[in-house]
Write a structure and sequence with these properties.
- This protein has 1 helix and 11 strands.
- The protein is globular and about 40 Å long.
- With 197 residues, the chain is mainly beta.
Length: 197
């Protein structure tokens, strides 16, 4: 059977699509790793950007344990003070994942939305397609792909499955997006449970 390469829609968005003026990641940056040598079966495009898409309507199959491992206090966005407003956290943002979550802020100057997203799958691995680099965090390889100037996706083995990290930030206020993604990995790796499922 064809396992194929499927888009991870929640971490990426259609090429050239905008979210409040912010360019988003290449839609094929993060894909399922094939479990066999079967050819690709293609992909489907997401209907909305990763920061604006509503939470999934399907009930999650698992408790959203991953989403309890990161808080607003772990992220640099609130350091902007009054320039960062409307902190919003959502869980189960994409039913294609066993667990998924998102933390966002509205930045006033420049006017944009910034955020971090986490995704977990137990049985289907995640891999960055055509990675632009790899970090080693606590002895663990973390692959990443920088997309234009606004976003980065990262992936790594984690707990009893695989985790993807998405960073969307066109504000230029918090440093390179992939570096912020690396810092997120540095935060959640010491908090890694034996199992998320």
């Amino acid at each position: 059977m064809v396992t194929g390469l499927l888009l991870v829609a929640a971490l990426t968005a259609a090429c050239g699509q905008k979210v409040q003026g912010s360019p988003l990641a290449d839609p094929q940056a993060l894909v399922d790793s094939p479990t066999s040598s079967s050819p690709s079966s293609g992909s489907t495009k997401p209907s909305a950007g990763p920061l604006d898409s509503p939470p999934a309507t399907d009930a999650p199959a698992m408790e959203q344990k991953l989403c309890k491992l990161l808080t607003f206090d772990d992220l640099p966005f609130k350091d902007q003070g009054a320039n960062a407003t409307q902190p919003t956290a959502n869980t189960n943002i994409n039913a294609d994942f066993d667990q998924s979550c998102r933390w966002t802020y509205e930045i006033g100057t420049p006017q944009t939305k910034v955020g971090v997203q986490l995704y977990y799958r137990k049985t289907r691995s995640l891999a960055v397609k055509n990675p632009t680099g790899t970090y080693t965090v606590a002895g663990r390889p973390v692959s990443y792909q920088q997309s234009e100037d606004a976003s980065c996706v990262l992936s790594m083995k984690y707990s009893d499955g695989n985790v993807g990290i998405g960073v969307i930030d066109s504000s230029q206020l918090f440093g390179p997006q992939c570096e912020l993604g690396r810092k997120v990995a540095e935060i959640i790796i010491p908090r890694e449970p034996a199992a998320l499922s």
